[in-house]
Design goal:
The protein is mainly alpha-helical. The protein has 10 helices and 3 strands, in the order H-H-H-H-E-E-H-H-H-H-E-H-H. It has a single domain, classed as P1 Nuclease. A hairpin with a 3-residue loop joins strand 1 and strand 2. The longest helix has 30 residues. This is Aspergillus nuclease S1.
Length: 244
């Protein structure tokens, strides 16, 4: 039962992490990604969690905390648990994409123009949001999302099983530990996403094969952590979760 639920959560996470205009860097929505200075490979909540107007708590980490709290109080008349769950899943996907905790100076790679396989002009943020996954889907999974999801599940149960407990660990029963997820992404942005990339770079196999393992693992971590958050919220009350 747990594996079936986790499979459904990971599939939901993959779909939910798809970029939408309302919450992208270029169109500021209600919550924004983390705003980190160029070259700073860490996330500090009090410094980095704000929107373009400087309003505190208005970032993806704040959004995750907000919608988790809403689901914990889903009986309140002002709370729509379906909307809260959708946004929670979306933001969990966002925060595990390294460039959502990238440099504020280049809008998380949005202003870094790159050439993808000498065929397509794009930008670095889109490469991580879309192009890497699309190439992997075409080359390895026959454009079948369920195959990709099953491969990630197999990695969780076999190759990453000794890491799973650490991924989902969170000492708080009422919070999400999303700060930790943002810190991981900020470090990966420095170490992998931005590594060797400049304006006009041609990104091909070398970049793809260095990035793909990160993308796969971050999707897995996002799914594991979403499942853990839902378990903390709903416990064994699966009927309540399924009714949302």
């Amino acid at each position: 039962m747990r594996l079936l639920l986790l499979l459904q959560v990971i599939l939901f996470t993959v779909v939910a992490r798809a970029p939408t205009a309302a919450h992208a860097w270029r169109k500021e929505g209600h919550y924004m990604v983390c705003k980190i200075a160029e070259g700073d490979c860490q996330f500090i909540y009090d410094r980095d969690c704000h929107n373009m107007k400087g309003e505190k708590d208005m970032c993806v980490v704040g959004g995750i905390n907000n919608y988790t709290a809403a689901l914990m109080n889903s009986s309140a008349p002002s709370v729509d648990p379906t909307v809260s769950l959708m946004f929670l899943a979306h933001f969990l996907g966002d925060i595990h994409q390294p460039l959502h905790c990238g440099s504020v100076q280049d809008y998380g790679g949005n202003t870094i123009a790159v050439n993808w396989y000498n065929r397509t002009m794009t930008n670095l943020h889109r490469v991580w949001d879309q192009d890497i996954i699309e190439k992997a889907m075409k080359d390895y999974y026959g454009n079948d999302l369920s195959i990709m999801t099953n491969v990630i599940m197999l990695n969780i149960t076999e190759n990453w099983s000794d890491e799973e407990e650490q991924w989902e660990a969170c000492p708080s029963k009422t919070k999400t530990c999303a700060d930790k997820y943002a810190m991981e992404s900020a470090q990966l942005a420095c170490d992998v996403a931005y590594a060797g990339v400049k304006q006009g770079s041609v990104l091909g196999d070398d970049y793809f094969f260095s990035a793909l393992p990160v993308v796969r693992k971050r999707i897995a971590q996002g799914g594991i952590r979403l499942a853990a958050i839902l378990n903390r919220i709903f416990g064994d009350n699966n009927s309540r979760l399924q009714s949302i």
